[in-house]
User: Fold these one by one.
Assistant:
Number 1:
Amino acid sequence: MVKSNIITITVKEVEGKVTYNHITAEKTEIDEGESVHFTGVVRGYIPSLEWYIWIRVYVDDVEKASFDIYPKEAGEFEETYEFDITFDRKGTYNVYTEALVQLTRYE
């Protein structure tokens, strides 16, 4: 009997991903000490409910807040999120978010 060559197969875990992340602001001109309400939409894919979306909020490239979104179903998702930022000093600020799909680690 002659044995064939060996072929190694690597099966990777299916990963989640974000395909779209967009925010809008209720207003873009305010007075010192006022807050702005933001609404965001994030879309993507999670292979199971062990995954969640981690949202990070930045003002002028400095992280100011973060929060998690837990989709109700696995597969393709579209979730809406909201947050407020108070601006205490006059100036011009750039606000953006980053969205990343994360796997929940149970320990």
Number 2:
Amino acid sequence: MEGSGHGGFNPNHLTEQQQMQFAEATLGEECKNFIQSNVGRYIQGRAKMELEECKSGLLNLERLDPDFDVRYEQLRQKAGCALLFTQWMIEAITDGEAAYQQLQQQDGEEVL
């Protein structure tokens, strides 16, 4: 894509479907760049730490504790947020790579 690391594609000459694929590929590339940045590595590290803290907290949670249900739900929600960040980044990168491959395949078919 022009300007985003995927050379050769001009978004002005693409069909509507290809423009959507181009946008998805660009977003995936931006997410990959973000994860590799200092801020991205920091957030990814924080997400991993949150998951470890939640796992430890759940393992040490006492069933007889009167606040068990509240504490369990807090830990579950905290872990869920950390997992969502990782899941969203992986999905965006994977979907972007697939969209780019589809664009390349379509571009190759047009040349034939």
Number 3:
Amino acid sequence: MNLHSVSIGTLTFALSPGVRLAKLQRRVTKLAKRGGGVIEIPTRGPDTISMLVSPGVSVLFHTRHVSAEDISVARTDDTLSVHHEDFHLDFL
């Protein structure tokens, strides 16, 4: 199982499990090359994130492969926590 996330500045968001990562990366790159624009980020859970992409904005995509049976996921009102024996991730 792959857990995908995107970091924009100091914020990190968990991406939807069904996200087509390569397509999203191409769209972000295309907007940056055109000088900027707004794109909706498919996040895990009920939140919708729209971000302004421009040549000066750092966007980091991160993928971590874990086995599905080795993780547990917990959601509070404002944070998604992913627990695995080797790491702990909190997403907004």
